[in-house]
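re: that chain from earlier
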Amino acid sequence: MESAQLFDAGEKGRGLRATREINAGEVIFSEPSFSAVVFDSLFSQVCHSCFRQQAQLHRCAQCKFAHYCNRTCQTACWDEHKQECGAIKKAGTAPSENIRLAARVLWRIHKVSGLASDSQLVSVDQLEDHVADLSKEDLDEVNTDVQTFLKYWSHGRKQHSAEYIAHLFGIIKCNGFTLSDQRGLQAVGVGLFPNLCLVNHDCWPNCTVILNHGSQTAVSSALHSQRRIELRALRRISEFEELTVSYVDYLNVSADRQRKLKEHFHFDCTCEHCRQRANDDLMTAGADSKPSAEKLKEVAALSREYLENIETARVNGDYHEVLRLCLECLQQQEDVLADTHLLKLRVLSVTSEVLSFLKSFSEAAAYAHRMVEGYKKLYHPNNAQLGMAIMRAGITHWHAGQIEAGHAMICKAYGILMVTHGPSHAITRDLESMRTQTEMELKMFRDNKHEYNAMRDAALKNPTKSVCIDFTPAASQVTRVVCIAFS
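^ sequence. v structure.
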C-alpha cells in the first residue's frame, strides 16, 4: 500500500495516514473483501460473486442457495463458496447472513492464516471486537449466534471454542461494511475489509468508500477484476494527514451522531464538527417567521408522527396515501421549520420521490429543488449522498421539461460523483450518458423550443421512453455505514 501507512492515532488507537499529497478523487487504496455475503432477504436477487442485482440469476446446483449472474461469476466465487456449499448441503438449509459471514471468515483464516495478501496490514484476528463493551441484549444476540454457528460449523474439520467464535462475531459487528448494488441504491450485503477497518471516523471526513463490483466480461479470465472497495479522497490531503471516513450519516445533529457512534462502535466522537456542534443550528432551525420554541417543539413532534405513518403507507405500497400525508405534514411545517430542518428535509425528499413515482414531475421538481438547496447547506460539497440527491433532482427536472435546470443539476452531480465514485463506476457512466443526452436536448430547446416541446410530449406519451425514479423501499439492514455509494 504505497499511499497509506499504519500509525499510532493516540486515543483513537491505530489509524491510517497519507504517505504523500493526495488530490481529490484519487483512489488511495483498493481492497478485495476478506469475506462477504449477500443479505438473507436478497439471496436469490443478488449475485453472490459480484453483488449486482439481476433479474434472472443461476442457482448453485449443489446447495441451491447461492445465485450467480453466469458461469463466470460462479467460477470466480467457487474458492469462497465451496466449503459453504458443502456445509449448507449437510445442514439442509442456509443459516443467517451473520453465521454465513463468520463461517466464510473462519474458512479464509484457516486458508491464509488471517492475512490474505502482503498488502494486508493486520490479520483479521487483530481487529477490535468490543465484546466486553456490548450491552446485555447485544451480548445475548452474539451468544445465540455462537451456538447456531457451532452447530453449522460442526460440519467443518476443525472445532473452535465459543469464546473464539464470539470474538469473530464481535469483529464482524464492529467492522462489517454494508455493500451496495451496482447502482448504489440499495444495501445488498455485508463484508469484512481488514485495511479499511483501520480507517478512523470523522463526521466531516477527507475520504469516502465505494464498492467497485469488478468486471468479468472479458473473454480472457486474466483480464477479469475482483470485487473490491476503493478508498477515495474527497479533497486534497496533505502528506502524513490522517485518513478518515464517516461511519454514520452526517444528517443528524452532533449529539445523535455521538450517541449512535457510542452505541454501535463504542467510542466518543470528539471530531471538530461534534466539538463545535457545527450545523446543529441549521438542522434544527425555525423558519424566517421566528416561531416560538414551544411551536417548534410541537411541530417537530407532529412531524415525527407523520413520518412514521408515511413509512407505514410506503411499505404497504399506498403511494397516494404517502403523498396525502406528506402534503399535510408540509403544510404543518410551513412557516415553522426551515428548509434545512432535518424533519422537513425528510418530508421534502419523500414528497419529491412519490410525486416522481406518480409521474407528477413538475410538482416533484419544485420539492426536489427545495430539498437540494437544504442539503447543499449541510453536506460536504463532495458528499456522495449529496451527489446522488442532485442527480435524482436533475432527472426529475429533466422529465418535468425543465431541461436547463435538469442539465445543470446532472452536470453538478456528475462532478461530485467523479470524485466519490470515479469515471468507471456504473452510476458515473449512467450520469455521463444522461449528461450527453440532456446537452443535446438543451441545444434543441435553445434552437427551437416549439420543436423540443413537441418531441418531449411525444416521448411522454410513449411509456417505453418514460423514466421513473424508483420509489420502492430499499433494504434497511446496516452494520457499519461508511457511505459505500448511497443507501
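The chain has two domains: 4-265, 291-465.
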